[in-house]
Write a structure and sequence with these properties.
By secondary structure, the protein is α+β, with helices and mostly antiparallel strands. It has two domains: 8-108, D-amino Acid Aminotransferase, Chain A, domain 1; 113-286, D-amino Acid Aminotransferase, Chain A, domain 2 (Alpha-Beta Barrel). The protein is built from eight helices and 14 strands. The protein has helices spanning 19-23, 41-55, 62-66, 113-118, 144-150, 199-208, 256-269, 276-286, and strands spanning 8-9, 26-34, 37-38, 76-84, 101-108, 120-129, 158-165, 170-173, 177-182, 185-189, 211-213, 225-230, 234-242, 248-251. Strands 6, 7, 8, 9, 10, 11, 12, 13 and 14 form a nine-stranded mixed beta sheet that branches. Strands 1-5-4-2-3 form a five-stranded antiparallel beta sheet. β9 (177-182) and β10 (185-189) form a beta hairpin. It starts with 7 loop residues before the first strand and ends with a helix.
């Protein structure tokens, strides 16, 4: 199937009374698709099912969902699925017979290889995430906290912002999961209270035994390496960390240590692990 570079969608609008539009009552998945084949598809589907079970929203059949990645055709695309509870109910009261509404879109995608190889600058955010264990780990539609956190900076040199919960524990970045190495151990924030359990994060935790920990933001300043990653962008090594005022707290030289975890992540997504220039930089960094 040949497609133009324009977005391709299911073509049906969202009614005014849709509960996803009105209340964020729903779930979404963002999936990397290469030549019509979805990466980490089983993990995305498992998370969608978990979210549907927890929220009480019936999930479409696997046959209907499995047919969607092939709609993207050749090349690299992002498939976004949005599942809402549909319409009905009075106010916050749930409808007696929910009629879920699935919307989807595939969009051409180009990753940011310069962030893979050169690393990124990140900052802490002032906004703190609310603690709600019943929603923890889900990719639900109510993302207003992330929107407000992302509004804290406009500097294009800053790629991402890091979020803590209201009790001061590291959780995630605004749209990526967080990893670091400390005393030779790979760690990532625990997500039992809030945050999104990314599919790439979960795959790396299972594959490498990455430990889920409770840690404050000061932990990163003594880390040997820090990364951000998700199942669309891949893994970005962090080269500089700022506070919420833009003052530098720590920096790192991107070297073999960063490349090792990146290689594991990119093998799962079909991205390259390094280029010739990156290899030369690594040799210089380790000298």
């Amino acid at each position: 199937m040949s497609l133009s570079s324009e977005d391709i969608a299911d073509g049906e609008g969202v009614p005014f009374d849709d509960r996803g539009l009105a209340y964020g009552d729903g779930l979404f998945e963002t999936v990397l698709v290469r030549d019509g084949v979805a990466t980490l598809w089983e993990a995305h589907m498992a998370r969608l099912v978990r979210g549907g079970e927890r929220l009480g929203i019936p999930v479409p059949s696997r046959s209907a969902l499995d047919a969607l990645p092939a709609r993207a055709g050749a090349g690299l695309w992002v498939l976004k699925l949005t599942l809402t509870r549909g319409s009905g109910g009075r106010g916050y009261r749930l409808p007696d017979m929910p009629a879920p509404r699935l919307r989807w879109r595939v969009t051409p995608f180009t990753p940011s290889p310069e962030r893979w190889w050169q690393g990124i600058r990140v900052r802490h955010c002032r906004l703190a995430l609310g603690i709600q264990p019943r929603l923890a780990g889900l990719k639900h539609l109510n993302r207003l906290e992330n929107v407000m956190a992302r509004a804290e900076w406009q500097d294009p040199e800053i790629a991402e912002g890091l979020l803590c919960d209201s009790e001061g524990r590291l959780v995630e970045a605004t749209s990526m999961n967080l990893f670091w190495q400390r005393a030779g151990r790979l760690e990532t924030p625990g997500l039992a209270r809030c945050g999104v359990a990314g599919t790439l994060r979960d795959a790396l935790c299972r594959r490498l035994g990455i430990e889920e920990v409770d840690a404050g933001p000061e932990t990163l300043e003594s880390a040997e390496a820090v990364w951000l990653g998700n199942a669309v962008q891949g893994l970005w090594p962090v080269r500089r960390l700022d506070d919420d005022q833009g003052q530098k707290l720590a920096d790192w030289r991107i070297g073999r240590l960063h490349r090792a975890l990146q290689a594991e992540a990119h093998a799962l997504l079909g991205y390259p692990c390094h280029d010739d220039d990156a290899g030369e930089r690594d040799e210089e960094d380790e000298a």
